[in-house]
Design a protein that fits this description.
Helix content: 55-70%
Number of domains: 1
Strand content: under 5%
CATH class: Mainly Alpha
Strand order of the largest sheet: 1-2
Oligomer: single chain
Structural class: mainly alpha
Number of strands: 2
Shape: globular
């Protein structure tokens, strides 16, 4: 996701292509950053929904692996589900993009949205949820540790320390 002049992009493309699997010119200067912000808005909402759905299925007594396999064939499938459902269910958050980094990104998104007078209520809420994960000791966990927050903050959840990810 690159922003800039087309000529400069064309000159840089062979160099960037040596280390980036994909690249796309999104528009003029700043367009790449705004596209990345759009990605973060979408992905945090998806991951929070995935955490809620997986937790719901588990608490309902369903075979969650079977549920995930069925959903991967339907309209709710996503990269997050394909690549993170298993680790979220296992409470394995010792990899990937940290909660701290995602909180930074969401802060940038919310600042930009505010300057544009755009409302992002779901993104703001997930930003608060990421702060909750941080308070659980999860600043260095992968940000899909939203699952841990879901498990610990839901009514009837085990006390902190009895769930995975700690």
């Amino acid at each position: 996701m690159v922003g800039g002049d087309e000529g400069a992009f064309a000159r840089a493309e062979p160099v960037v292509g040596s280390y980036a699997a994909r690249m796309r010119l999104m528009g003029g200067p700043g367009a790449g950053q705004l596209t990345k912000m759009t990605n973060q808005i979408c992905v945090v909402g998806l991951c929070q929904a995935l955490a809620e759905g997986l937790d719901f299925a588990s608490r309902a007594g369903l075979d969650v692996q079977n549920v995930v396999e069925a959903m991967l064939q339907g309209s709710s499938t996503s990269w997050q589900m394909e690549n993170r459902a298993e680790t979220m269910l296992a409470g394995d958050y010792d990899f990937g993009f940290s909660t701290t980094l995602m909180r930074k990104d969401i802060g940038l998104v919310l600042d930009e949205a505010s300057s544009m007078n755009v409302s992002l209520p779901v993104t703001a809420l997930v930003g608060q949820f990421l702060a909750d994960v941080d308070s659980l000791g999860g600043a260095g966990w992968d940000w899909c540790s939203l699952m841990e927050r879901q498990r610990r903050f839901a009514p009837g959840s085990p006390p902190a320390g009895e769930s995975a990810g700690s």
